[in-house]
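task queued by scheduler; priority normal; single chain, no ligands, no partner chains; default sampling; output format set to structure tokens
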Amino acid sequence: MRPPGLRLRGCIHSEEDEIMKKIKDVMVTDVVTFKRSDPIHYVAWALREKRISGAPIVEDGKVVGVVSERDIMRLIEEHDIKVNLLFPSPFDVIELPLKIKHELDEMVTLIKETAATAVESIMTEKAITVSKDETVAEAARIMGEHRINRLPVVDKDSKLLGLITRGDVIGTLI
């Protein structure tokens, strides 16, 4: 707990004042977004370039899903090479290098094909969203409950207005 009377942003506030702020007061409005048709390799590049871990998928201004690094990591994990070396046979000594080479070639081909695939194949549909008039405390509760790092902020028609992240929530306490 913060010591009483600690100065926040140049004035004295209580923790309750900060956590009861409205999402519209802390959300980011310049949001990186993607389209369903964007290739996975472009999305991965943009996430890394912008130093963000995820972003909404938007069509006609409406949020239709979310993509995160976790979605991309899951895709990479699916193409992991599995080799059983616990009980190798004498033939494994001869076969193993060939087997690994073959599996690596297959993995490279799959990754290249997958990288060109549209992001809609890995995105999370039915994004969990919030209204700009909800409190930061409510955003924190939703993020914790669903184990997510960001919430698209939308209007009543699901049009994207902004984004609130765990960092934004934590920032209200600094």
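post-processing summary
- Strands lie at 7-8, 11-12, 54-59, 62-68, 124-125, 150-154, 160-165.
- Helices lie at 15-19, 40-50, 69-78, 90-115, 136-146, 166-171.
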